[in-house]
Amino acid sequence: MKLPFLSILLLTLIPISMQAQNKANYDESKVPALVLPDPFVSEKGEVIRSKEDWEKVRKPEIFKLFEREVYGQIPRDFEDISFALAQENENPYPDLARLEEVDITVRRQGQSHTMRLNLFLPKKKSGSFPLILLINHRPMDPEGSLVDEAFWPVPELIKRGFATASFHAETVSPDDADRYQEGILNTLYPEQMEMADGMKAFGAWGWAAMRGMDYFEQHEKINAAKSVLVGHSRGGKTALWTSANDPRWAITYANESGCGGAALSRRKFGETVEIINSSFPHWFADNFRKYNGREESLLIDQHMLPGLIAPRAVYYASAKGDQWADPKGEFLSLKLGSRVYTDIYGQKIQFPEAFESITSPIHQKSVGYHIREGEHDLSWTDWEIFLEFVEKNL
């Protein structure tokens, strides 16, 4: 039976991601038996038990594997960085906060790139403030609004005594497979585009967060030692990799970050490595494509990512209606990954045996998790629960 021309046309207009979601597995009985790499066995087969061996041997091994096979590099080299305050937009909260629109200019090998960072500082309080930086992967508002309060609740954060900042991902690398190079890759790091483990969009966004931290460290009103990095979805994947590269973040929060972020790749539940690489080929290193449909051949999995952040605090969150991100896989990844905190750094951390038994947020020293009702989003409920964890760990 031949489909009518109109039906064929409509099928071609369905987004690839939507078609992929229809093909994804949501049946727990079809999840493969999990055989995961051991974080505590080195590439030479040696069992890692001490903090010294972890930090000098196994942690660098795991980092190099993630860098080469999954995320790609975040280059560290540049000749110069400078900061300039702009005055282009009206402060939406003049009674609550002081707005700084910061142009960060970085120079390398005769080229320069300028990114924009928006920072709000409490107006009615004195001293230096803890800071929350949100990686914002969402497009800039066409009408010029600086804040989407449903996503970035600036007034509430200011009232609670935080300085808070954000940058749009497109200020360094557009979230577009055809245009992601139109930023720091073209201007500052063109050689990265020729490498199988070269920087892609996530690396560029992480680089931007690190340049933001450079600004915070020299700011007299910010206590950079109490800085929190937050990302949702693709921003959450970026936040985890950024913090693995940069130890200056005291707390890292990945909200509903799913495949390539919090969730275990080997579960092949919801979004998979093949789906994500096909739909978003500009996010991860080219090498990651080798594992399309072959997740079990990876020498790492996402439960090994928290160990790159330890002993600093890490927080995951899921939504029950967001099966695409595999909430159970996110939880298991953190539960297994938290062994670095217990076995290497001697922290007392306990998780429920069964994911299905979770009825309330799990807030412990350095490691936290919650799952809420609802769909894929960074909601005020997520922020409110996470801020309770921050108060205990910052």
From TrEMBL:
<keyword id="KW-0719">Serine esterase</keyword>
<keyword id="KW-0732">Signal</keyword>
<protein>
    <submittedName>
        <fullName>Acetylxylan esterase</fullName>
    </submittedName>
</protein>
<feature type="domain" description="4-O-methyl-glucuronoyl methylesterase-like">
    <location>
        <begin position="104"/>
        <end position="342"/>
    </location>
</feature>
<keyword id="KW-0378">Hydrolase</keyword>
<dbReference type="InterPro" id="IPR029058">
    <property type="entry name" value="AB_hydrolase_fold"/>
</dbReference>
<feature type="signal peptide">
    <location>
        <begin position="1"/>
        <end position="20"/>
    </location>
</feature>
<dbReference type="InterPro" id="IPR054579">
    <property type="entry name" value="GCE-like_dom"/>
</dbReference>
<dbReference type="Pfam" id="PF22244">
    <property type="entry name" value="GCE_fung"/>
</dbReference>
